[in-house]
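Researcher: We plan to redesign the surface later, but first we want a full-length starting point. Tokens attached.
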């Protein structure tokens, strides 16, 4: 009972901190309203299945969308839905399928010389799972210290990003893509294997 009361107290404190410090989810909504892929400079890197970088593009006006066909629009269609990603960079068009693509806003760099730990030991203090999940969800909306380990679709490491204030979401309108707001900068990951860990988990 004492442990449950402790978790409830922590949850209340976390919720109160949202109003005092602002939260990542609100900042992220504001950023996307302004259009993080429009009017901002991004470095676009494409990788093959073996984590080899095959292409790098840089642009100040970048938009990303799905190149739809009839099957995407008409639910009664018997055809296959398009999974083609249409990328526009400074007015120039590129289509992409199958590659791992990372869109990193200018100023957001991979961590140099980061060694990915093979074994991670987490404190076995335990907790009440429903409340733990609730608290983690609130913390994610506020922004948490996180480490992002990205690998190719063959599981070969590509790189690592870290931030003190990280918010994670999955865009509704972009297939196979995850969006992260890392300390105010945008990172989009398309068709990649990745792990997103609380940095405190890594000793």
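Model: Full-length starting sequence:
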């Amino acid at each position: 009972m004492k442990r449950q009361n402790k978790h409830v107290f922590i949850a209340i404190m976390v919720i109160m901190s949202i109003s005092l410090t602002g939260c990542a989810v609100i900042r992220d909504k504001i950023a996307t309203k302004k259009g993080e892929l429009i009017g901002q400079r991004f470095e676009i890197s494409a990788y093959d299945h073996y984590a080899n970088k095959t292409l790098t593009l840089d642009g100040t006006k970048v938009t990303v969308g799905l190149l739809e066909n009839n099957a995407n629009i008409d639910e009664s269609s018997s055809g296959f839905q398009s999974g083609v990603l249409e990328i526009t960079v400074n007015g120039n068009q590129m289509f992409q399928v199958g590659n791992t693509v990372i869109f990193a806003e200018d100023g957001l760099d991979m961590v140099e010389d980061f060694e990915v730990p093979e074994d991670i030991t987490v404190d076995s203090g335990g907790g009440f799972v429903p409340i733990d999940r609730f608290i983690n969800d609130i913390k994610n909306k506020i922004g948490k210290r996180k480490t992002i380990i990205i690998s190719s679709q063959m599981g070969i490491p590509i790189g690592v990003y870290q931030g003190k204030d990280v918010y994670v979401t999955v865009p509704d309108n972009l297939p196979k893509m995850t969006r992260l707001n890392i300390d105010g900068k945008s990172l989009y990951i398309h068709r990649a294997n990745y792990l997103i860990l609380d940095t405190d988990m890594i000793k």
